[in-house]
Design goal:
- The protein is mostly helical.
- Among the domains are: 2-227, no CATH class; 570-691, Rossmann fold (3-Layer(aba) Sandwich), CATH 3.40.50.
- It contains 28 helices and 13 strands.
- A 4-stranded mixed beta sheet has the order 8-9-11-10.
- A hairpin with a 2-residue loop joins strand 3 and strand 4 (330-333).
- Helix 9 (221-232) crosses helix 21 (509-532).
Length: 692
């Protein structure tokens, strides 16, 4: 874990340097967090390109790391170097001395760090005998999928490998997060430690980025502090079902909390799902793609919210950037092309994030199409295209994905017959009521209205001054801008409720999460305004917060407290996979049963086909090959012909195959067993000169 943390720290150093070309007005903690996401993205993208030349080797890892750290050259500029030292001194200054004011932020970050540590520690579990388990209720199929991708990079065919789940086709699933893990694995770090360190670093970065984004949008530090709780403990009214379960059994409350029978945000009754449980633990791409996209969105908000002085296109001192590009008579911040390049990498980081960003940018351009902003949008768009278009062309060439399966009319998202209004209330609790309150308060916002002033009797004492949590109150211009800025996020919600944007409709959650984050400024603003309205409203805020996070907290606790231990790979299966790595050529296609937990994923070898559910969700039709695999395991002359058709030399015969395809034992007994551990066997059914 120490080695992987050190390597991520080096990536972060390079990414941190990039932040000084993006924004001069950011605290050091944000720079470290954004630097982690940017550095990891650059490292993975560079590794993807370098590995075409050197293969995925130690040399490729070193070269990619050097490329990632190149932005440190920016500190040759004396002004940036001076600003870095000022930011560092300011950050260390906040740690000096002891006070309640300084202890509370420490407690805030320590709380989330411990939650993430104990939560992501359950992503992959290795038992003393070598078996692999997971403690995530929704990670049973996703962990094998991502392990299959990681080992395909480290132990599979020459780079880039075929799709490890469907031989003979290109692997186009956004894989940069898994490629980063594979590169770390290549230099000798353990896979479990890599997953934990990577997830922990990205989750903490997302925490800080969301906090900063909401704080700046609402101009209120307390709103920024509330937002991560609503994101990471998101849920609906499932806690009411929990109380029903509690009432229906004889256990005490504490006993039940230590033995929760199910999740309360994702089930047949609930589809929204807690973000940690259903997204960040299982879908590794979004844990990198979401914070990267929010970095870009934060910069776009700053550009969109800027109120130009009358009769001038020049920027004010408040909004100056480190350098500009001259386009005609206009100055365009150099941050925009850098942000565009970063956004372009989303094709291979998290494609749905790029789709969400495209819709957001298009709407913002149409809402404020003045000349200065239009030039800036075009610079940003061209920069995105420079990276995104080549990646898209590479992705679609030779892919088995049927893109027509990604766009279909489908009303109500995954409501499963529920009334759509009740469905969203049940799944999000008080989010919509608070969203409406926040929007109303924004509409009523006036420049001369006190922002953070307590209106209780105590606050009316003359000697007590209203406390400001940020440098300026939320003005009417910013309130109006924020309302306009929310329109594309609302559009994302509407689109995701009427159009299916993936073969599996639940995957629309990858778009809906951006609507959710875009709603947080208004929800947190409503909560903060009520909190400061006086003592009578404080219990109301407490109840609202409880309803918003109770269900998600139950699900997160269920994972953290080690109540879930789902076995995936037995010790014998893991041992067989390790043996296969030593005897089976890396470019050989392996035949295995089409199950999500086939030990084939641990070998790095490409499978003729793996779990059809994963393939279907990626737009690949597995039906013909699925039928042919069944035919091969049934044995006989037709099986022999199919072995030749797909050049199958090795066949897995394990308890998973017995369950999944009912193989013909008599047929396979005539072939030699080249590796066996318990009931896990590998048969060789052909050699390089033909059938045995």
């Amino acid at each position: 874990m120490i080695l992987s943390a050190l390597l991520i720290a080096l990536m972060t150093a390079g990414g941190l340097a990039v932040t000084y070309a993006l924004d001069e007005d950011k605290p050091m903690l944000w720079r470290i967090s954004a630097g982690c996401v940017i550095g990891m993205t650059v490292f993975g993208t560079a590794g993807f390109l370098v590995s075409f030349i050197f293969g995925l080797s130690v040399a490729a890892v070193i070269i990619s790391l050097l490329i990632t750290m190149l932005p440190l050259m920016l500190f040759r500029d004396e002004r940036r170097r001076k600003q870095f030292y000022q930011d560092k001194d300011r950050a260390f200054g906040k740690l000096q001395g002891a006070s309640v004011r300084k202890f509370l932020p420490f407690l805030y970050y320590a709380f989330f760090f411990l939650v993430f540590l104990f939560f992501f520690e359950r992503a992959m579990i290795i038992s003393p005998d070598g078996a692999i388990l997971t403690g995530g209720s929704n990670n049973l199929g996703d962990l094998p999928y991502h392990l299959g991708a990681i080992f395909a990079f480290t132990d599979g065919p020459p780079f880039p490998p075929d799709n490890p789940n469907f031989a003979g086709t290109k692997f186009t699933y956004p894989f940069i997060a898994d490629l980063v893990a594979a590169m770390l694995l290549k230099v000798g770090t353990g896979i479990r430690e890599i997953l934990l360190t990577q997830n922990l670093a990205l989750a903490m970065s997302l925490l800080v980025i969301v906090d900063d984004l909401i704080t700046r949008m609402v101009n209120d530090r307390l709103a920024g502090r509330i937002a991560p709780f609503l994101l990471f403990f998101s849920g609906g009214l499932g806690f009411m079902w929990f109380w029903s379960d509690y009432s229906a059994q004889a256990k005490g409350l504490v006993d039940l909390l230590w033995a929760l029978p199910k999740d309360y945000t994702i089930s047949d009754d609930f589809r929204w799902g807690n973000s940690l449980v259903t997204l960040f633990l299982t879908q590794r791409g979004i844990l990198m793609g979401l914070p990267l996209t929010l970095i870009v969105i934060g910069a776009l908000w700053r550009m969109f919210n800027y109120e130009p002085p009358p009769d001038t296109d020049a920027d004010t001192e408040k909004h100056k950037v480190s350098s500009t590009l001259k386009i005609g008579s206009l100055s365009v911040p150099t941050a925009l092309p850098i942000l565009g390049y970063l956004a372009g990498t989303l094709v291979l980081v998290h494609l749905h994030s790029l789709l969400a960003l495209f819709i957001i940018c298009l709407c913002l351009l149409l809402m404020r199409p003045d000349k200065g902003r239009f030039i800036q949008w075009m610079v940003f768009a061209v920069s995105v295209a420079v990276i995104a278009i080549p990646e898209l062309i590479w992705s679609v060439t030779g892919s088995a994905t049927d893109s027509t399966k990604f766009i279909e009319w489908h009303f109500g998202w995954d409501n499963r017959g529920d009334n759509i209004i009740w469905f969203w209330i049940k799944n999000t609790g008080l989010l919509f009521p608070l969203l409406f309150v926040g929007v109303y308060l924004m509409l009523m916002r006036k420049d001369d209205e006190p922002e953070n002033e307590d209106t209780s009797a105590k606050s009316k004492k003359k000697k007590e001054k209203p406390k400001r949590l940020v440098s300026e109150p939320l003005g009417s211009w910013q309130a109006r801008s924020l309302l306009l800025f929310y329109i594309p996020f609302l559009l994302l919600f509407i689109i995701a409720n009427v159009v299916k944007l993936a073969p599996w409709q639940w995957d629309n959650v990858k778009i809906l999460i951006y609507w959710y984050v875009g709603s947080l400024p208004f929800v947190t603003y409503a909560l903060v305004r009520m909190w400061r309205a006086g003592t009578p409203f404080k219990p109301v805020v407490a109840v609202c917060l409880f309803v918003l996070v109770a269900s998600g907290s139950l699900d997160v606790w269920r994972t953290m407290s080690k109540q879930i231990n789902y076995g995936i790979f037995s010790a014998d299966g893991v041992a067989l996979a390790e043996r296969i790595k030593t005897i089976m050529p890396r470019d050989t296609v392996l035949l295995n049963g089409p199950t999500y937990k086939s030990v084939a994923v641990l070998t790095g070898r490409v499978s003729l086909m793996r779990h059809p559910g994963h393939l279907g969700s990626h737009g690949i039709d597995p039906r013909q090959r699925h039928a042919e695999i069944n035919e091969m395991y049934r044995g006989g002359p037709q099986a022999t012909k199919l072995f030749e058709k797909y050049n199958i030399e090795y066949v897995l015969y394990t308890p998973d195959e017995v369950t999944e395809v009912s193989p013909n034992q008599a047929f396979f007994q005539k072939f030699p067993v080249v590796a066996q551990f318990g009931q896990y066997r590998l048969y060789r059914v052909r050699n390089t000169t033909g059938q045995r």
